[in-house]
Structures are given as structure tokens and as C-alpha cells.
Design a protein that fits this description.
By secondary structure, this protein is α/β, with parallel strands linked by helices. The protein folds into four domains: about 90 residues, 3-layer Sandwich (Rieske Iron-sulfur Protein), CATH 2.102.10.10; about 180 residues, FAD/NAD(P)-binding domain (3-Layer(bba) Sandwich), CATH 3.50.50; about 110 residues, FAD/NAD(P)-binding domain; about 55 residues, 2-Layer Sandwich (Enolase-like, domain 1), CATH 3.30.390.30. About 20% of the residues lie in helices and about 30% in strands. It has nine helices and 35 strands. The strands form nine sheets. It has a five-stranded antiparallel beta sheet with strand order 1-2-3-8-9, with no helix packed on it. Helix 1 packs parallel to helix 8. It is globular and about 80 Å long. It starts with about 25 loop residues before the first strand and ends with a helix. Bound molecules: flavin-adenine dinucleotide.
């Protein structure tokens, strides 16, 4: 979470500001007493809401206004400027709303407005039983939205994890580095589930989906009936058949439990080898450096992250990690893992009393396949995230969705996409008929450098760099056939948001 302690609080809004104080911008941050309050212009009107994103306290004034919403520059949460509602994940809590008084040319804010009342739930036609398989990003966001939209029936969430839904991206960042307290990690405290009638069952593996019988059965033989089902089983790390990979000091990183096990080992370890130079491998390398371990990254690629970000950013990221002491062995792979060293395929050895394998993930489609639900490297769903079997939805890393009617299919592994898809699936289970149409977005942290990426850059034929990565100020555009298909931004958060707004498919 960000600290805003030394920040200029901006004008005292109880004393009022004029339109000229906006300096031509659409937003202005000031304060009312101790509280940071954002003024935003919607046409000639000025509205006021809390100025800090409720996800990680991002500064909303540095985001963008789209219609009657504001978007956070850090992780793209979206809030209603009218009601404060967190309309789009990764935030779930609303921002506060404030009363705006106009006295001549002055805009004055003194007190909070009453929270907006929720529309009454439509009890008629609601499903009676909803089951969610998966306690991750998509599963949690779906459950939360179902209750937020007034769903009153039974709601069961079955998760193989040991822990309630947690902030998975942090497992390779501050938490792994030992710089985030435990209380940051759960998406909601335990009481939330009981308090909202969400029957969350942890350590519960679903073994089968009975499509005709409309029920799921767990590995321990219990059955849960459903009218609507969400499959949000995510993905699992790829495990390579390397001799010695089954030893206790060799890990993959997906769950909170994996992360705790790595931390326990890292406390006694001196040197680590990370296999893989993708986002999770590199973030893990940075976190282990923060813990004082010697870290070697071994990768078959020529440059880290080159396939996603291109050679220039790949080189920048490599030099950034090298400046923090990470040693790269590119174009290399592991031949064997011993008790305290690894052997590379070229015969050289590296000391390692901790080994992390971070070579990508595979979507968990087995349940759907066995149930006869169509898959193609992901569970196939339409633009409303429903599978070919009515009432059965899929969202998150496991889902391959169709962009609009007749559009291309996509599957990505991004936190915000998974949560937003969970939210759209929830609304559609209640009859909303929404399409998932957000531009894919992810972020990644490397020491103090945040990279934000928007779009579909699976391939490109030209890269344009505006600015300088080394100065931590650049917008990198990936073009295919003359069209920008994706952007990556360092220090250009509002531009990345703006690109995402343009890319989002029309309603
Ligand atoms: C360490 C790490 C760091 C990441 N950092 C970022 C980042 O910085 N930015 C970003 O955009 N993305 C990041 N990601 C990716 C992001 O976390 C995923 O895209 C997101 O979690 C996908 O959500 P999901 O709900 O589809 O799957 P998950 O969050 O993985 O949840 C899947 C759930 O399904 C459960 N499950 C699976 N099979 C069964 C079964 N048979 N029965 C019962 N339960 C089952 C699992 O136990 C789990 O609870 C990161 C991922 C990891 C692992």
C-alpha cells in the first residue's frame, strides 16, 4: 500500500476552489480535514469522491475520467463518480462520496454525502443454487458481485487452496520479499464469507461436474447441486521432468502455501537458482535478492521477457536486475538438480540450496473436458463468459472467451482480467447479458519499477519507444500491420489507461 505522508495535500476544499484551479485538467485533489478528496468535472458539473483507490491507495487524480467513472492509474480499478461504487476490480470497496456546494464561482466541499442505496434485489427468477469452483481472483470476484447485486440464494465456493482468496500477485512481490505484513494478503477477512452467506470450503477438490444432473462432486464424495456454475479453476505451474526436481528445496509458486514454503526455505538458504525469466521468475528473483540470497536466473531465452515486451525492454529489465546483483545465464537450461547445486546442460554448476521453477502455467481444464464442456487450450466461452452448456460459466486463467459475436478467442493470465470476468459472469448468472469487453491489462513490479501493459501483443512487426526506459519514463507501442495492438508503460500510467479505454471493445 502506498504511503501519502509527505505529499502536498492540495487545497483545503472547505475554503473552496475555482474552476481555474483545475488548470485545464478534469480532476483536482484537495482535502477536507485529514481526508483526501477528488473533485472531478463531468461536463459543467463538479462531483467529489474519496481520492485514494480502495485497492492499493493509488492516487486517483493521476488516472483518467471516462464518462461518469474514474480509473486508477496503478491497477486500473474503476469507480462511479456518482455513487463511489467500485464498478471494476481490482478494487471492491467503494470510495466515499462528498457533497459539492457551488457559491458563485466557488466550489466548496465540507461533508460526506450519504452512501448510495442499493437497488432492491430481484427475488423473482433468481437461481437457487450457485456453485463456484475456485477460490482465486475470478471465483472471489464472482461471489462478491453476486451478493452485491442482491443474489439471495445458496452460494458455495469450493477451493483446493489452504487459504481463503488472497492477493496472489503479491506472492512474488512484497510478501515474498518480506516487506508486506500477513494482513495485506486476504482479499477479505474470514468473517466476510460467513457474514455474506458465502459457504467457502477450503482444501476441497472438485473431482467431477455432472452436467446432466446439475451437480458437482468433490474428491471426498460430497455433492453440491447447482442452477448456475462458475468454473474458475485457474492454471497450474508447468513442472519439468528435470532429474532432482522432486526434492524439498525445489518449488513452483502459485498458492499462498507455496509462498510460505519458499519463505521458510529462503530463511535458511544462501543461494537460489530461478529457472525461467518470465514475470514470475524475475519478480521472485528480485524478492529473493531483497532477502539477501545470491540469485542466478537460468533461461532458454536470449533475453528476459523478450517475447512479451521486445528486446529493448528485455535488455532494460536485465540490466535493472543485474544492478541489483542478479546473475543471468541466458540460452541455458538445467540438466539436473542436486542437494546444494544445479548442473546446467553445458555441464557448468551453480550453488543452489533453493530452486524455483517458473516456466509458465497450464490452464486447469481437466474437469471441464471430462464433463464434455468444449475446450481449446482453455474452456471455450462466449462474450458473456457462458460455455456451450447453458448456466455453466468459466472465467479467469482457465477461460478462452470470444471477443463479441464472431470475434477472435482469447485467453490471458492477468489478475484484473480474471476478477473482471468473475464480475461479468456473476451479473450474467443473474440475467444481465453483459459482454466482457475490457482491454487486457497486467502490471509487474521489478524493484521500484512498475511496468503496466495493455492490449494483445502476442505478436508484432514493429516497436516504437517514446521516452527512455532507463529514465523510467517510456511508452512502448507494439504495432501489427500498422495498428497498435498493445502498449507497455513505465511512468506513463495515464497513457496506458487511455490506450485501454480506446481498445475496449464497443458495447
Ligand atoms: C506469484 C504470482 C504473481 C502474479 N502476479 C501478477 C501480476 O503482477 N499481475 C497480473 O496481472 N497477474 C499476476 N499473476 C496472475 C494472476 O494471479 C492470475 O491471472 C489470476 O490469479 C487468475 O485468477 P483465477 O481465478 O483464474 O485463478 P487462481 O487465482 O489461480 O484461482 C484458481 C482457484 O481454483 C482452485 N482450483 C483449481 N482446481 C480446483 C479443483 N479441482 N477443485 C477445487 N478448486 C480448484 C485453486 O485452488 C484456486 O483457488 C500472478 C500469478 C502468480 C502465481
Amino acid at each position: 500500500m502506498a504511503s501519502h505522508e509527505n505529499e502536498d495535500p492540495g487545497p483545503d476544499l472547505t475554503q473552496g476552489v475555482g474552476i481555474a484551479d483545475f488548470g485545464g485538467r478534469q480532476m483536482l485533489r484537495g482535502h477536507v480535514g485529514e481526508e483526501a478528496v477528488l473533485l472531478a468535472r463531468i461536463g459543467d458539473e463538479v462531483v467529489a469522491v474519496g481520492a485514494r483507490c480502495t485497492h492499493y491507495s493509488g492516487p486517483l487524480e493521476l488516472g483518467i475520467v471516462v464518462g461518469e467513472t474514474v480509473r486508477c492509474p496503478w491497477h486500473h480499478a474503476c469507480f462511479s463518480l456518482r455513487t463511489g461504487e467500485a464498478l471494476g476490480a481490482p478494487a471492491f470497496d467503494p470510495v466515499s462520496c462528498w457533497k459539492v456546494e457551488r457559491k458563485g464561482e466557488r466550489i466548496i466541499v465540507r461533508e460526506r454525502a450519504a452512501p448510495a442505496s442499493q437497488p432492491p434485489p430481484h427475488a423473482a427468477g433468481q437461481p437457487q443454487d450457485i456453485v463456484i469452483i475456485g477460490g482465486g481472483a475470478a471465483g472471489f470476484a464472482c461471489a462478491e458481485m453476486l451478493r452485491r447485486r442482491g443474489y439471495q440464494g445458496r452460494l458455495v465456493m469450493l477451493s483446493e487452496d489452504e487459504d481463503a482468496p488472497c492477493d496472489r500477485p503479491n506472492l512474488s512481490k512484497d510478501f515474498l520479499a518480506g516487506e508486506a505484513p500477513d494482513e495485506w494478503m486476504p482479499l477479505r477477512p474470514d468473517e466476510f464469507y460467513a457474514g455474506n452467506g458465502i459457504d467457502l470450503r477450503l482444501r476441497t477438490k472438485v473431482a467431477a461436474i455432472d452436467v446432466a444432473g446439475r451437480k458437482v462432486t468433490t474428491a471426498d464424495g460430497r455433492a453440491f447441486p447447482f442452477d448456475r456454475l462458475l468454473i474458475a479453476t485457474g492454471a497450474q505451474p508447468v513442472r519439468l521432468p528435470i532429474p532432482g526436481a522432486d526434492q524439498p528445496h525445489v518449488f513452483t509458486l502459485r498458492s499462498f502455501a507455496d509462498c510460505r514454503a519458499i519463505i521458510a526455505r529462503a530463511k535458511q538458504a544462501k543461494s537460489a537458482v530461478v529457472l525461467g525469466s518470465g514475470f514470475i521468475g524475475l519478480e521472485t528473483a528480485a524478492a529473493l535478492r531483497a532477502r539477501g540470497l545470491a540469485v542466478h536466473v537460468v533461461s532458454l531465452d536470449a533475453r528476459p521477457l523478450e517475447r512479451v515486451l521486445g528486446p529493448e525492454l528485455g535488455d532494460f529489465i536485465r540490466s535493472l536486475h543485474e544492478s541489483h546483483g542478479v546473475v543471468f545465464h541466458m540460452g541455458a537450461s538445467l540438466g539436473a538438480i542436486g542437494a546444494d547445486a544445479v548442473t546446467l546442460k553445458d555441464g557448468s554448476t551453480l550453488s543452489a540450496d533453493l530452486v524455483i521453477i517458473g516456466v509458465g502455467v497450464r490452464p486447469n481444464t481437466a474437469l471441464a473436458e471430462a464433463a464434455g464442456i468444449s475446450t481449446d487450450h482453455g474452456i471455450l466461452v462466449d462474450a458473456g463468459l457462458e460455455t456451450g452448456t447453458p448456466g455453466i460459466f468459466a472465467a479467469g486463467d482457465v477461460a478462452r472467451w470470444r471477443e463479441g459475436t464472431g470475434g477472435q478467442t482469447r485467453r490471458v493470465e492477468h489478475w484484473v482480467v480474471a476478477e473482471r470476468q468473475g464480475q461479468v459472469a456473476a451479473e450474467n448468472m443473474l440475467g444481465a447479458r453483459k459482454h466482457f469487453q475490457d482491454a487486457p491489462f497486467f502490471w509487474s513490479m521489478h524493484y521500484d519499477v512498475a511496468i503496466r501493459y495493455v492490449g494483445h501483443g502476442e505478436s508484432w512487426d514493429a516497436i516504437e519507444i517514446d521516452g527512455d526506459p532507463a529514465a523510467r519514463d517510456c511508452l512502448v507501442s507494439y504495432r501489427k500491420g500498422g495498428t497498435v495492438v498493445a502498449v507497455a508503460a513505465i511512468g506513463r500510467d495515464a497513457e496506458a489507461l487511455e490506450y485501454g479505454r480506446r481498445l475496449a471493445a464497443p458495447a
